[in-house]
Amino acid sequence: MIGTVRSHGYCETVVSLDLNIVTGSDSDTPDWDELLKFIHKAFAYMEKLIDPPSSLHRMTAKNLCDKASKEILVLAYLRDTLVGCMFCRTESDCLCVGKVAVSPQHQGQGIGKKMFETAFELAKQHCLSELELETRVELTENHLTFANLGFVQTGTSAHEGYNQPTSIIMRASV
Description:
There is one protein chain. This protein is α+β, with helices and mostly antiparallel strands. It has four helices and nine strands. The chain has a nine-stranded mixed beta sheet, sandwiched between helices. A hairpin with a 2-residue loop joins strand 1 and strand 2. Helix 1 packs across helix 2. The longest helix has 15 residues.
């Protein structure tokens, strides 16, 4: 259950125990270089699992900043430590969720679930009835995690130059 909602300028903070979920853009936060390092660290485990390599390798701190200016950046802090992030993009029929990352030492503690609860609320605020995400076919543990959050596979996609699916598309009703 999400706790008290407090408004802070551009941002809305959802407080649950010591976990703060921040959405929106705040000119002082985040440090884009640090956020990029954080995502790289969270995605490191998949390096040897996925083909082709993650698009994260082509991203720069400026790319993240640009992405956040067009999408909704969701950040999770435990006390003052960044422990999770995701990007949400509104489409005509759904809220697309991507670059979901939880620090390796904080996985399994419900942080991802809280971020997805925030994404579901954002979808409702934008009058969207579904969330959508893509996950690599090789990341079967992620498929199970997303299924436990209510996502079901609705399709597949293939990266350029690949004849077989490289990603699965999953949706969840709000």
